[in-house]
């Protein structure tokens, strides 16, 4: 069977909004609708023309089960629209694109809306297991005697909930927090605190510059909170005045007192959503669409969860090499910035002949990525990392940045909690 070409034709996202100690103004579906509505309105075809809607989301809230379907209905895409939600932690938003890519390539679909949505500020508070067991006992108690007996088991700590986000960012196999996995990599590759801080500072400066130049204008859609009468028109976690002096004052977050990972050189906890439209050549011709890029290939990889931050290395390397490319022939890279130490460790691993030989099976080092081609407009350290969204955002932004800078190829890649990595190869279209 001949594989059909697949195109990324358009996309949009909300501003990424920094969590500030309580639930933000939007749920995951709210966010998906906020950027989905203007995206669909600017298309030359009806919103019911899609074959499928796929949405990545990790922290699904109880009132929005299968948020892909809820979002599709709220967007007015019709009762007949099939929609499903995918979850692969940080890779969920990229997985939605990859699934669309494979469906279209194989000829079963022509037009798919693929996205990611996450409202980390709405991550649930959960009861500890002992409290759940006590409430169950109370609920099953029959009569005053059994109820009184059950009441004797009540403990004050039962009313102190567990922060669901904290548990979600802790690997269930290794019991390491995601920040601790970055510390493991910093130790392995000799990443110094000052180097990590310098990378973080640069991420903020790059995003601030991109905002000032208007390079995100077609990508970021204003989100409107009708209850508060407020509009959100930009990523609000960016600190244009970020500097080494202020970063140096921050204490290590996970390994005190000598750790290299701090709140200042880590990705921010944020809310945000992103959509892209994925289309076949037939759909492009039928609707006279102008693609941003062609989706060429994708790759997923598994690795030790304790070094999950190397997921980009293990997924992007085989993707690039099997397509006849090398590091220097990739025009732009988007590597999701979970932690500065994690990104710098990936760069170091690719430039380490021993690592490339022993782990990647290469005869020599893959090479050193030019920082002028990596995360050119900042990344998750300045933007934030709404986990179910980030993989979608980096693919969308890569396509936009390739078009702006005239790059012929680009790779979007990310580490994924649990010991996974994902990568996607894009190619410019004439």
TrEMBL record:
Keyword Transferase in annotation: yes
UniProt GO molecular function: 3-oxoadipyl-CoA thiolase activity
Organism: Roseovarius halotolerans
Enzyme category, top tier: transferase
Family statement drawn from the similarity comment of this UniProt entry: Belongs to the thiolase-like superfamily. Thiolase family.
Domain Thiolase C-terminal stretches: 289-427
UniProt entry tagged with the keyword Acyltransferase: yes
Cited Pfam families: Thiolase_C (PF02803), Thiolase_N (PF00108)
Gene3D superfamilies: 3.40.47.10
InterPro entries: Thiolase, Thiolase-like, Thiolase_C, Thiolase_CS, Thiolase_N
Domain Thiolase N-terminal as annotated: residue spans: 6-281
The protein's name in its UniProt record: Beta-ketoadipyl-CoA thiolase
Top-level lineage group: Bacteria
